[in-house]
Structures are given as C-alpha cells and as structure tokens.
Amino acid sequence: MSKGPLLFTDIGKKAKDLLTRDYITDHKLSVSTYSHTGLALTSTAVKKGGLSTGDVGAVYNYKDTLIDVKVDTASNISTTFTATDFIPSTKTIASLKFPNYESGKLEIQYFHPHASLTTAVGFTKSPTVDASVSLGNSTFAVGAEAGYDTTSSTLTKYTAGVSLTKLDSCASIIVGDKGDSISASYVHYFDQFKRSAGVGEITKRFSTNENFFTVGGAVSVDHLTLVKLKLNNHGKLGAVLQHELMPKSLLTIGSEFDTKALDKAPRFGVSLALKP
C-alpha cells in the first residue's frame, strides 16, 4: 500500500481514539483462540445495566484476504469481506448483515503516493453513495467527504478537513455537519512508542453557539500498565486503567465521574480480553 495521505475518515482519528477508546462503563468478557491456519474464534459477553448481550465470531485471514463473521444473541449475522490489492493499490471491503441485508455496503479504497479515495455504496434499490478524497502526503493531508441519497437526489452530508502529522504530534481541523460545526484536535506523544500522550479537542456548533472541549492523556506506568484520563467542559471525568495480564490479554477497568454532581455514584466498567 502507498505511504501517501490519510484516508479522510482517519483525519482526527488519533485524537478521537485517545479520548474514547477503552472508556468503558459496562462489564465485558472476551475470549479468543487462534490456529496456525489463520482462523481466529472469539466469544464476547457484555452486561450493560440489567441487560446481557453477546456474540460469537470467526475471523479467517489468508494472505491479503480477511473474512469476519459474527452472530449475536438476537440472531443477527454480520459478515465482512476484506481484500487488499485485489486491484493494485486498493482495498475492497464488502459487508452484509442478515436479516437486515439492506444495511450492507460495498466500499473501495484507493491509495496513491499523493492521494487517497474511497467510494461506498449501499446494497439497496436506491442506495446512498458516500465518497471521500484526501490529497497530500504522509505528513500533510487535506480532504473532503460527501454523501448522496439517490432516492431524494440530495446531499446527506458534506465535510472538509486538514491534518498535519509529525513523528511526535498530530493536529487536525474538521468542518462538519454541513458546515454547522468546526472541530480542532491536537495530540502530542511523549515517548517513541506513543504510549504516553496528551490530547485536546474543541468543537463549536454555530447553530446553537455552543462550545465543547475535552482534554485528556495517557501515561505508561510501565510496559504492562497504562492509565488514561479525560475531562470535558460539562464536568465529566473519565479514567481507565489497563494492564496486560499476559501477552495480548488485557484487563481494563473504566470509570466515569460527574464532577458537577458528586452526590451521584460513579459508573464503573470492567473488560477482560483473553488471548492465548
């Protein structure tokens, strides 16, 4: 694949992941097993409030092809087929769900040293077509995304963004919601492995004249333990403690506090992912 600019959907993703990934408030258990043939089996159980859900899945990886199948407790079946370089410099992703097959789509990503493009079409009689393009290189990228509803012949969305990526930092600006919002984010890494970092994100919505901002970070206590914190302007404080019990097996404990309502009990979540 090309070392060109980010896909448009990846602009601002590093900051978003650092502020959202692993901040759990549910109880989750995931067990995975692997075979030398490239087959991985995963079983996941989640308890959220008083409800328990889960799914079982299988992932088969052979050369440049990956097949991912999941079945949940409601008997919904999700299948994703990914092929890399089936056509040179492209990645093809086909997803299909049963019984709601109309939620499936076909996506093609194209990579070039100075551009990346994506096109996604839904599996319906009158599909929605999404397309994006970003121009630049591995350091600087500028791009845009649009969605078109073939039924009503209208644009469902249009977004533009710019990203600057260095070895120890990443900054981005995104104008979204059909021009109604603008978001800026910045991530700075403090070690070469990018486990310790600081992050900030601010969003302004013009229609309501509201501002939202979140600051956070991650600290690597040692090579097995990671601590993450975040705080937004609504007073919500999130914390994560993640420890590697054994290679690739993670214990994650998350919590959320409302600093403006200390009389309310904090929310806690636990996730245990076991991989041999």
UniProtKB/TrEMBL annotation:
The keyword Zinc does not apply. Keywords: Ion transport, Membrane, Porin, Transmembrane, Transmembrane beta strand, Transport. Its main location: membrane. It is found in: Membrane. It comes from the Eukaryota. Belongs to the eukaryotic mitochondrial porin (TC 1.B.8.1) family. This is Voltage-dependent anion-selective channel protein. It comes from Lithospermum erythrorhizon (Purple gromwell).
